[in-house]
Each structure stands twice: as structure tokens, then as C-alpha cells.
Amino acid sequence: MIDKEQFKKHGHQLIDWMADYIENVDQYPVKSQVEPGDIKSQLPDQAPNQAERFSEVWSDFQKIILPGVTHWQNPNFHAYFPANNSYPSILAEMIMTTMGAQCMIWETSPAAAELEEQVLGWLALEMAIPSNWSGVIQDTASTATLAAILTAREKASDFNINKQGFDTAHKFRVYCSTETHSSIDKAVRIAGLGSDNLVKVPVDDKLAMDTSALHTIIKKDMTNGYLPICVVSALGTTGTVAIDDVKTITAICKEHHIWHHIDAAYAGTALLLPEYHHWIEGIEDADSFVFNPHKWMFTNFDCTAYYVKDKEALIRTFEILPEYLKTGSRGVVNDYRDWGVPLGRRFRALKLWFVIRGFGVKGLRNKLRHHIALADWFHEQISDNADFEVVTPKVINMVVFRYAPTGIAESELDRLNEALVKQLNATGKIFISHTKVKGRYAIRMPIGQTNVEQHHIASSWDLICRTAMELSSS
Are residues 221 and 112 in the same domain? Predict the structure, then answer.
């Protein structure tokens, strides 16, 4: 067992290691180089019966666990989307873990509830989210989207499905584009609506939702006896960060009394920059909005900001009040357990508070603009190289491209680019991922890791070019 003095000793040891790790993380292979089963084969079949020394556990962490970790904080990590941390966020996480507060209602931690309300108000002000909307921290955007669809379902049924369940009269429909995140598919299933009632709307040349098609599909469904209850628009699709037309979609939803949920999980952080506020023009007539500070706002996972116009509908959807949770403060304060699926809640607001104060709004904006400038530079390199091509227009800090040397048949380019990604990731010097754009294999390059700098991007570009030429000559 670890006592107080050992805790202090090992705690200082770990702090030193953590600081060194952050400063030197680019010396690790970005993507873990182990094979399936390598980690498990080094672990005993049974848990230890007796307490083991911390030094033994720490040694095994370094020897067994660390080689099997993909280093998301490496400045050469460009796969999927970033899941960033920062010194202020890590310090707050340590305090949260130490206190172990369970922040389900105001009574169980008043500071957690009131800080959450305030920091989300700060962000709303800076991001041009309407001041009469209310915010709550969820664990992930998937959970927030589920909350939006469940609330839309309950409003459409006059809150009767929660009481009586579904019947044959409920023919609900939810709409999103063919490019939106798989969490919408999952939420529709969990909400009991059925996958067949999630309608995937075609996209335009920029891979954003075709709003004319959306309107046509909605009107046809209504004619056929369906009730449209929710449209999920994407402020940054997963594959290419395409931006849906929020203003037009909101107008369509308002016309037909449909809940409009805006999924800005990754790209929403860009709304800290005033030059991107036009993305959400018309949001005052939408219903809900979500973005993840744990992606591009340097707040470690998990921390999702979810905003709603009608908080009473959200609360009515999730509120259950057993005797043991009745308090004298109910109705005077926010009891956030009623604002989503979980009863138990972590003190996530502390991370946001530390990050916002640690960087300042100006510092956050400077960091975001720096990442966008790095993406501009990378985009220029792709555009100026005859052997590569930009596949979709650059949006904020995302570049989507492919290797397309002259003389290579179109049918071979997908195979060549897939091989390029595989070989690049095998080097351990970079980690990138792919998408399909109009059926073509394309490489995604989001540039947003907290500490990424010009020399990292230049080295990555050099590696991409050298590896591509080696593939072509082999």
C-alpha cells in the first residue's frame, strides 16, 4: 500500500516524468508499433494477490504499456482529429482526481455547478452563441447528440414516449447528410427510432448538405405520413470538415417545426475567432449546438460543451426525482444530472476554467490562428507540387489531398495512396488517416496538435514526398 510519504515521493517522480514526456513526446513513435496481442501476452493471467511495490508497477508501465500507446500529444499526430491537452488542463485534471468530487447536483458540489454555468457562459459570449441559450458539459459529442435527438423525440410526442413508449402512430424521421458522423446513426438506434428512419441527405460539390434536397425530402416524407422531428447539421464533417449551411437549414426547420441540432464537434472551436462567426448565422432560430473543447481547445478528454435554446425541454426529457435526490435548493440552481443521460458527473468545468484562464481568450485565438497558418503553408506545398493534388477546399486547419503522379491510371491511385498511408504510419514518424471523397481514397491532414510548429509540418511534408517517390519507383 502507498502511504502519504510514498505518495508524495512518487507524485514528484511522476510530475517530472509528465513534464519531460510533454516536452519530448515527439521522440516517441507517433503510432504504436506493436502487433495484436503483444501487450496482453506480457501480462499475467491473474491479478496479484499481494500489494506490489510502486517501483515494480512503474517499471512495467514503461516496459509493457508505453510501447503500446499511440501518442496523441505528439506534434506529428495528424490522424482523425486532435485530442489535445495542455499544462493548465493537466493540472486541473490532477486536482479533480485528487478531490474525487461527484458533481451530479448542486448540493454535492456547489462550485462545480456554478463554475460550469459560468465558463459555458464565457464561451457562448466569445463564440456568438445566443445569450439566452443554456450550456451543460457532456462527456462526448455523441452523448450530446443523443440528448438532442431524445429531446426532439419527446417534444414531438408531447413527452409521452418517456411514459408510454412507442406505438404505431409514431412515424418519426431524423435527417443528416451522407457525410455526417456515425454518432447520429447510433443515437437514432438508441432513441428507438430505427435506422430506417435516419434519412441521409445528399451533399453538394463541397460535400455540405444539399439544402434543396433536404427540403424536398422533408416535404415528401410529410406527404407520406412521416413526422420529421430533427435535422442534424454538420459544422465540419468528419471526413473533410465540410460546413453545412446553418442559416438555410434553420429556416427549413423553423418552417416545419423541426428540432435543428448543430454538430460542431471539432470545427466549433474555430468560433472563438470572430472571422468564423458567419458559420452560425441564423443559430438563434436553431435548437441545440455542440462542440468539443477536448478536440482543438487544449482541454484533455473528456469535455463537451452542449448548448440548448429550450433547457426546460431538455430537463423534462431526462428528469427523474427519487426521494434521495430531493433537496431544498431544487429549482433555484442547476442540477446538471437532469441535463443528460448520466447521474454521476465529473468536475469537468475545472479544466475549462484552468484552460481559459491559463491561455486567455487572446492566447487561445493566437494558437488557433497559428494552426490555421500552418495548414495554409501545407496546402501551398500540395498545390505547388505536380505529383500531389488537393481533393477538397481547405477548411480552417484541415487539408485533404492525395498523391496523383502523372502517368498513373486512375484505377491505381486508390491503391497507391492507401499504400502511402500505411507506409508513412509504419515509420512511427507521423500518423495520418484517410477518407473517401466521391469514391476516391484521400488523405486527411488536420494540423491542430497543441504544440505543433512549422518544423514539424516541414518534416512531415518531406517524409510524405520521399515515401511517395519510393513507392512510385518500387
Answer: yes
Asked if the structure places residue 262 within a domain, the reply is yes
pLDDT for res 326: 60
Kindly give, in sequence order, each residue whose CB lies less than 8 Å from that of residue 66, ignoring residues fewer than 6 positions away.
none
* Cβ-contact 263, 304 below 8 angstroms: no
pTM for the model stands at 0.92
pLDDT of residue 217: 97
Domain that holds residue 177: 101-346
Question: Do residues 136 and 219 both lie within one domain?
Answer: yes
Closest CA to 266 of 250, 290, 302, 299: 290
Contact 373, 150 (CB under 8 A): no
Is 116 part of a structural domain of the chain?
yes
- Residue 472, Ramachandran bin (φ over 0: left; ψ between -120 and 50: alpha; else beta): alpha
For residue 395, what are the β-bridge partners?
398
DSSP 370-399: HHHHHHHHHHHHHHH-TTEEE-S--BTTEE
Query: 278: which DSSP letter?
Result: G
CB atoms within 10 A of CB 63: 10
Burial pattern 263-275, b for ≥16 Cβ within 10 A else e, equals: bbbbbbbbbbbee
Query: Per-residue pLDDT tens for 370-409?
Result: 999 999 999 999 999 999 999 999 999 999 999 999 888 8
Distances (CA, A) of 332 to 18, 28, 319: 42, 51, 15
Answer yes or no: is 163 within a domain.
yes
Which three cell numbers, joined as nine digits, stand for 404? 496523383
Distance CA 450, CA 296 (A): 8
Q: Within this chain, do residues 233 and 331 fall inside the same structural domain, yes or no?
A: yes
CA distance 355 to 293: 10
Q: What is the DSSP letter of 82?
A: -
Nearest 10 degrees: CA dihedral of 377, 380, 385, 388?
Answer: 90
246 and 383 inside one domain? no
Q: How far apart are the first and last CA of the chain?
A: 57
Total number of domains constituting the chain: 2
Looking up residue 434, the CATH number of its domain turns out to be: 3.90.1150.170
Residues 189 and 282 in one domain: yes
Same-domain pairing of 263 and 370: no
Same domain, 331 and 411: no
* Residue 422 belongs to a domain: yes
Separation CA 458–CA 149 (nearest Å): 43
Same domain, 196 and 228: yes
384 Cβ contact list (under 8 Å, min separation 6): none
CB atoms within 10 A of CB 416: 18
Which element (helix H / strand E) includes 128?
none
| Grid-cell match 516536452, residue found | 23
